[in-house]
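Lab notebook, design round three. We kept the backbone fixed and only want residue identities now. Task for the bench partner: fill in a sequence for the structure below.
Input structure tokens:
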């Protein structure tokens, strides 16, 4: 995050507050999120894409009421993919028309809820859903703006579990074989639907813009086909999210303005070649906005040195607050933040307190050899897909999210308590 530095005692501060104070006040483990950085990233994306485009923040990365308010204030729209995310957004007055509703298996109840709320668009993910959404809209006497999600058939270079544009996976309707053209044909016939555009999301944690370019080109190709067949120029395309962030010093992400420039250029060029009016572009970054804005603060517990191998450093959290290392082999860095140390670096593996050996937070890292129980260590870039994928494994209590801003800190999602856990257990 942008407001992290070290004070004269060597302790790390964020937003002007040192980590020991944060740990004392809010406890560990905890996610500490730099609100100014979050807002600045929202503005970077808005400004990069300009008034002729829309930025939908992908709520799955991390969503809370405070986040919704920030988005609203900074002029972003919101992508939700469940009734829970929708309810969170509506509960603090996010205008429904600025919300897009996603998902490969939306229930009828969810569709009803979204249409009744008046969401700005529903992204149709399958042939069955085209009919399902149309029926609900007709029953409610509405005409629902929709986009069709297509799979453009590119291989995004990322982990298999988070790549989504190849054909052999559950999302979307294939461009290949005329499937997407058939979906458009069906959607255009249904009174309950107002087909406004085509959507493509190629995957997540992607650095190479080439995949987005291929995707943009193919989506524009479909728009041209639709124009030729139906005489309709669909006014919108959404190119999804997926832009990578730096988890370690080896990652080199693009800046929003570079991304915007290349997407605007490619869409503009392709549309001109096809004789199409340039559609309104939208994107759905989640990780690129919230990921870098937060770190997880842990207290060091047990140390297990293995001669000639590495030292296992156990922290007071683990796979319940960050599943990404275990699930995707994700890489993170870690730093001693409560003090400086002149000691030699030692090879460590930062592990949690859960009952399995795969409970790894940082697979390989160096920390000072004088590391001791009670030290505070921080894992940066945990703002995306850590709290949102946190679990109660081993009845762990999910950590709080604390927003740090202007030298003050406040809890935006509180730490779970044993009462929270027991309240659900009604047996
Ligand atoms: N739009 C759609 C339709 C999506 O499915 C996603 C992410 C996004 C936008 C936002 O992608 P982002 O900009 O955040 O990469 N849990 C995984 C990531 C799963 C992403 C799922 N969809 C992880 O921790 O890496």
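Proposed sequence:
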């Amino acid at each position: 995050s942008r407001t992290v530095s070290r004070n004269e005692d060597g302790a790390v501060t964020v937003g002007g507050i040192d980590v020991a104070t944060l740990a004392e006040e809010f406890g560990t483990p905890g996610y500490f999120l730099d609100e100014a950085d979050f807002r600045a990233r929202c503005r970077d994306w808005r400004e990069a894409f300009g008034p002729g485009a829309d930025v939908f923040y992908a709520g799955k990365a991390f969503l809370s009421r405070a986040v919704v308010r920030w988005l609203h204030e900074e002029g972003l729209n919101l992508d939700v993919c469940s009734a829970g995310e929708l309810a969170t957004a509506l509960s603090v007055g996010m205008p429904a028309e600025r919300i897009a509703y996603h998902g490969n298996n939306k229930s009828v109840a969810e569709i009803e809820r979204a249409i009744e709320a008046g969401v700005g668009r529903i992204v149709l993910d399958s042939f069955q859903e085209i009919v399902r959404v149309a029926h609900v809209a007709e029953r409610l006497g509405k005409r629902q703006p929709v986009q069709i999600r297509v799979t453009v058939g590119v291989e995004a270079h990322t982990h298999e579990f988070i790549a989504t544009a190849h054909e052999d996976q559950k999302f979307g309707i294939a461009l290949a074989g005329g499937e997407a053209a058939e979906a458009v044909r069906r959607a255009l016939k249904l009174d309950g639907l107002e087909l406004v555009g085509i959507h493509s999301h190629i995957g997540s944690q992607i650095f190479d813009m080439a995949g987005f370019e291929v995707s943009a080109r193919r989506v524009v190709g479909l728009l041209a086909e639709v124009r030729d067949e139906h005489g309709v120029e669909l006014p919108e395309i959404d190119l999804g999210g997926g832009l990578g962030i730096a988890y370690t010093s080896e990652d080199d992400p693009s800046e929003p303005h570079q991304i915007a420039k290349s997407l605007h250029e490619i869409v503009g060029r392709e549309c001109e070649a096809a004789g199409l009016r340039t559609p309104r572009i939208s994107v759905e970054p989640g990780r690129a906005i919230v990921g870098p804005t937060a770190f997880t603060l842990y207290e060091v517990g047990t140390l297990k040195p293995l001669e000639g191998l590495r030292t296992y450093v156990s922290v007071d959290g683990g796979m319940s607050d960050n599943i990404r290392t275990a699930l995707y082999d994700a890489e993170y860095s870690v730093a001693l933040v409560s003090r400086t140390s002149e000691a030699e670096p030692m090879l460590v593996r930062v592990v949690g307190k859960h009952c399995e050996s795969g409970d790894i937070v940082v697979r390989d890292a160096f920390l000072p050899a004088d590391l001791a129980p009670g030290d505070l260590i921080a894992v940066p870039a945990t703002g995306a897909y850590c709290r949102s994928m946190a679990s109660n494994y081993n009845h762990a209590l999910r950590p709080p999210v604390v927003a740090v801003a202007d030298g003050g800190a406040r809890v935006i999602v509180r730490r779970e308590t044993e009462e929270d856990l027991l309240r659900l257990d009604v047996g």
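Keep this in mind before ordering anything: The first strand starts at residue 4 and ends at 6.
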